[in-house]
Amino acid sequence: MRYAFYPGCSLESSAKEYRASTVLVARSLGIELEEIPGWICCGSTPGHMSDKLVGIALPAHTLAAAAKMGTEGVLVSCASCYSRLRAANHAVRASEAFANQVALALGERYAGDVPVYHMLEIVAKAAAAPGFEEKIKRRLKGLKVASYYGCLLVRPPDITGFDDQEDPQTLDRVVAALGAEPIAWRHKVECCGAALAFTHADVALKLSGEILEDAKSSGADAVVVACPLCQSNLDLRQRNIERFLGIDLEVPVIYFTQLVGLAFGYSAGQLGLGKHMVNPVPLLKRRGIHV
């Protein structure tokens, strides 16, 4: 399988370990990733909150480039990028008049017909297929995981269509396929505060703190995420959350591709686990998972 790979801004900077683990997992699954030439920022939240045309034209530019590559579709790892690229497809298909505005902005017409997949969708499909068990070199038995989907994978459902918007199970099934235990908890689709961390830090700290508190009180050893911004809010800012709320957390926050990579036998160094503020390696060793 060959996909046009859209890393987006985060995987080029603050989430390099997410990119590294995505590439390793894709390789193990026999998936070829070809980076989209000339890709640009999807605009994320600031883009579409500032101007609708800009918010759609930015991801449409990248999708138009991908359309020329002849792949199975676009594969992304960032939940925000996934949301914006799928929103561009939806907007262009929904209104011919708006599609004309986008074409004028791009200097070319994009039909909104390039499929967009999140890496989690691809991994989940592989996990349900014959032969996946043979790829597992290190079963993650004894590890209790809170599968955190956040906002943008499952909402709005008419754009993403990813999974049930209230109780998604895709990530939970992947976790279980690796031998770990997905726990039941209440905050799996609650917002972490996203970009409010830059403008209203107190709001983001409160929301992220509630997520981590629920995961810990529900018995999770770690939180597993599929979004760079969620990972940043829950991990990078965890010490700030502890001071803000007056609590102790020490909850590792791991990208799902890192978890899959561990099961596939890659080392902590290859997967960039040591880059997290809350180092998950000591926890993994306590659970008998040698990395």
Task: Describe the fold and architecture.
- The mean pLDDT is about 95.
- The protein is about 50% helix and about 10% strand.
- The longest helix has 17 residues, at about 200-215.
- The protein has helices spanning about 15-30, 45-50, 50-65, 80-95, 95-105, 120-125, 130-135, 155-160, 170-175, 195-200, 200-215, 230-235, 240-245, 255-265, 270, 280-285, and strands at about 1-5, 30-35, 75, 115-120, 145, 180, 220-225, 255.
- It starts with a strand and ends in a 5-residue tail after the last helix.
- It folds into two domains: about 1-120, Glutathione S-transferase Yfyf (Class Pi), Chain A, domain 2; about 135-285, 3-Layer(aba) Sandwich (Rossmann fold).
- Helix 2 crosses helix 3 and helix 3 (about 50-65) crosses helix 4 (about 80-95).
- The strands form two sheets. It has a four-stranded parallel sheet, sandwiched between helices.
- It has about 290 residues and is α/β, with parallel strands linked by helices.
In summary, what is this structure?
With 291 residues, this protein is α/β, with parallel strands linked by helices. Helix content is 49%, strand content 10%.
Secondary structure tally, helices: 16
Tell me the major beta sheet: 4 strands, parallel
DSSP, total strands: 8
CATH topology of the largest domain: Rossmann fold
Radius of gyration: 19 Å
How many domains, as an integer? 2
Mean pLDDT: 96
CATH class of the largest domain: Alpha Beta
Helix content: 40-55%
